[in-house]
Design a protein that fits this description.
heterodimer, A: alpha/beta, 6-stranded mixed beta sheet, 5-stranded mixed beta sheet, 13 strands, about 20% strand, globular, B: alpha+beta, MetI-like fold, about 10% strand
Chain lengths: ~350, ~400
């Protein structure tokens, strides 16, 4: 009896110890699950935040919705996991989420040493400063000796240190876990300046009790290209996410919107035809069907619609397109040809 | 059938064959179990390394020598952005140790006071102590920390309108600013004098106890020790010609710069941790005191000892045997609870190393492993010291 028990335990132990082969086919996993696991922020208006009806909305959320529309056919089939800046990469590495769309800056270290790939840029941002108008500060160069509220584990900390070292100024970093806490610290006057990506500053300013009492300084001290992230080792999934983003940008370039997507199906322009799937095998090459682009634009909208709805004129943030406009409209958004 | 030998009329069974011998069997099974366990951990370790390599996640501890690139609000040693990640580890560790040690001291004192107070004959004092213990024990520590942080911050004015506590001591919501002592040549002798004074106090204690045992005469040990502790270094300080300068704070555009600054996060964390743990320690002390037989107190009173003397000489030394093991647990709890500092922006080990450094360097496994090893070592160290003290206090029975 004892020997039988011992053998049984060893057998179970041996099975448990076998190295499980990492399944690299995220596409198959997502199709089997029937839902896309999307990692988002803990609540950043304009990028990923639950709205009044507790439905997640934002620029980053739209990327996930686009991928869901392309892969699963329905933009609503997404499960959102709120993540702090500290946990976001571990959640993606471990397989808890399929895609991280959380205003994450594309940097060399993150691209190479974490086993992750950046699938593109959906917002070109830069780091700025938010101060109270009462301080009478007009430029970032006057901030010597100030206290800064920062979120832990972001490129914000590093850029701030570099900028102040370069300009031979001193500063005091007050480091919090979440952006809500940084806002609370700024409002209670624990720190003089709130620093983060400019888009986040506009979003956070709307949450202040007195939004008009704070102003964003003109200096942008860094480049922050924000984009979705996926795991390395799964090229098919990488392509799907990359081209979902590109097709949203390309759709705006060729004038396809969610309103006229049906009408565009009979458009003879070859660029439009390839996006909506009436010509070519663009979808099949990705491992999807050819209606992928049509579904994305119809259910989520093109890049311009997503921008205006979430962070532009249709939102409280009122951020102008600026550098995020199309390449032929004064900005640097440039989708490679869908052909 | 086992052979039976005749030795003086008593038959004893001979040694059984090895596969039936219980001693041999137990050794064999223990070795097998050990090998299986070692193989299990080795496989897990290798599996993790292989998986990380195939996914392109970098491994190893080389990142500790890379430049950190970020600033830390409070550091006991010299630190700026150009130092390495390894240095951020040390800074975080020192901050954690600082708040843990101070927290343990304050919590012990406060806990003992509250525990004794709860047993007081004075009804109001006893009830107040009960309210303190019951309230603070039953609210989660994180909420208490948030409370103290907001309470401390809201109560204090902004830096432009600092409270001036005295010449050069300012209090505002950026912290308590005191003149920073700058030690000059010759101050080392004052440190040496301080150490000599501490050694002298221990010698004095032993001598006074011996004298008490032999002659029954008491000696004012406490006041002599205080005099020695303050007087000897002060004397050396005066002899060396006052080798001390102070750096005072100046008002700048945003706040005060210069001087030594005690940040409100540190104060809030210290108050929160100490009061919370003191509530638990109070109950442990009360249990210990109640465990001492009432006959001891009655005998002490009949000898004419005052209440304070009874407590100090009779009750508490016996109560310590009951108090010390759970007290060790509370010290360990306090040390580990200090990791909640990340919620209120105090740069302790978890916030600096397992927070910022982890996110910048990206190597979660190594960093979390290091942090876990640190907390394990701290806890083992504290329990080792307490067990030494416990052995000294243990009842020596026949």
């Amino acid at each position: 009896m004892k020997t039988k028990l011992l053998t049984a335990i060893s057998a179970v132990g041996a099975v448990a110890m076998m190295a499980t082969a990492a399944s690299a086919a995220t596409l198959d996993d997502v199709k089997k699950k029937g839902v896309l696991s999307c990692g988002v922020s803990t609540g950043l208006p304009g990028f990923s935040a639950p709205d009044a009806n507790k439905v997640w909305a934002g620029l980053d959320v739209d990327v996930c919705r686009g991928v869901a529309a392309a892969v699963l056919g329905d933009a609503k089939k997404v499960k959102y996991t709120p993540l702090t800046a500290k946990e976001r990469f571990t959640a993606l590495q471990s397989g808890e989420i399929d895609i991280l769309s959380r205003n994450t800056t594309w940097t060399h270290t993150r691209d190479t040493s974490l086993g992750l790939n950046f699938a593109g840029v959906n917002y070109y941002d830069g780091q700025g400063f938010l101060v109270t108008k009462k301080l009478g500060v007009k430029s970032a160069k006057e901030l010597d000796g100030a206290a800064f509220c920062i979120q832990a584990g972001t490129t914000t900390e590093l850029n701030l240190a570099d900028y102040f070292r370069h300009n031979k100024m001193q500063y005091k970093p007050v480091v919090f876990d979440t952006s809500e806490q940084t806002l609370a610290g700024f409002e209670s006057n624990r720190c003089d300046v709130l620093t983060s990506d400019q888009s986040q500053l506009y979003a956070l300013r709307t949450k202040l009790k007195n939004p008009n009492g704070a102003m964003v300084l003109p200096e942008i001290i860094s480049k922050e290209p924000l984009g979705p992230v996926v795991r390395q080792g799964d090229d098919q999934w990488f392509n799907i996410v990359k081209w979902t983003l590109n097709v949203m940008i390309a759709a705006e370039e060729y004038g396809i919107t969610s309103a006229n997507a049906d009408a565009k199906k009979s458009d003879k322009n070859p660029n439009v035809a390839r996006i909506v799937g009436t010509s070519g095998d663009m979808g099949k090459m990705l491992g999807l069907d050819n209606e992928w682009g049509y579904r994305i634009v119809k259910q989520v909208g093109n890049y311009g619609e997503s921008f205006e709805r979430n962070v532009g004129s249709g939102s409280p943030l009122k951020i102008s397109r600026g550098v995020n406009a199309q390449w032929n409209a004064g900005g640097i958004l440039y989708a490679p040809p869908i052909r | 059938m086992a052979d039976q030998q005749n030795t003086g009329g008593v038959t004893m069974p001979s040694k059984p064959p090895p596969w039936n011998d219980p001693v041999v069997r137990s050794i064999v099974f223990q070795i097998v179990a050990l090998i299986l366990l070692a193989w299990f951990f080795w496989t897990i370790f290798q599996n993790t390394l292989t998986n990380m390599e195939t996914r392109g996640i970098s491994t190893g501890f080389a990142f500790l020598n890379r430049e950190a690139g970020f600033g830390i609000l409070m550091s006991l040693i010299e630190y700026d952005e150009s130092h390495t990640y390894g240095r951020t580890f040390v800074v975080g560790l020192l901050n954690t140790i600082l708040v843990s040690v101070l927290g343990i001291i304050i919590a012990t004192i406060l806990g003992f006071v509250m525990g004794v107070a709860r047993l007081s004959d004075n009804w109001i004092v006893a009830r107040l102590a009960s309210i303190y213990v019951e309230t603070l024990r039953n609210i989660p520590l994180l909420l208490q920390l948030f409370f103290w942080y907001t309470a401390v911050l809201q109560a204090l004015p902004g830096p432009r309108s600092s409270l001036k506590l005295s010449e050069n001591i300012y209090l505002n919501n950026r912290g308590l600013n005191i003149p920073k002592p700058i030690f000059q040549d010759g101050f080392e002798f004052v440190w040496i004098a301080l150490l000599v004074a501490i050694a002298g106090i221990f010698v004095l204690l032993r001598w006074a106890t011996k004298r008490l045992d032999e002659t029954g005469h008491t000696f004012p040990v406490f006041w002599t020790s205080v005099g020695l502790f303050i007087g000897l270094p002060l004397l050396v300080f005066l002899i060396m010609g006052l080798p001390l300068n102070f750096e005072v704070a100046r008002a700048t555009r945003f706040s005060l710069s210069g001087g030594a600054n005690l940040i409100p996060e540190f104060i809030a964390l210290l108050i929160g941790l100490s009061t919370y743990t003191a509530a638990f320690i109070a109950e442990i002390v009360r249990a210990g005191i109640l465990a001492v037989s009432h006959g001891q107190t009655e005998a002490a009173r009949s000898l004419g000892l005052r209440h304070g003397q009874t407590l100090q000489l009779i009750v508490i030394p016996q109560a310590m045997r009951v108090i010390i093991p759970p007290l060790t647990s509370q010290y360990l709890n306090l040390t580990k609870n200090s990791s909640l500092a990340a919620a209120i922006a105090y740069p302790d080990l978890v916030s600096v190393f397992a927070g910022t450094t982890l996110n910048q360097a990206g190597q979660a496994l190594e960093i979390i492993g290091m942090v876990m090893a640190v907390y394990l070592s701290l806890s083992l160290g504290i329990s080792f010291l307490m067990n030494l003290y416990n052995k000294k206090m243990a009842l020596v029975e026949r």
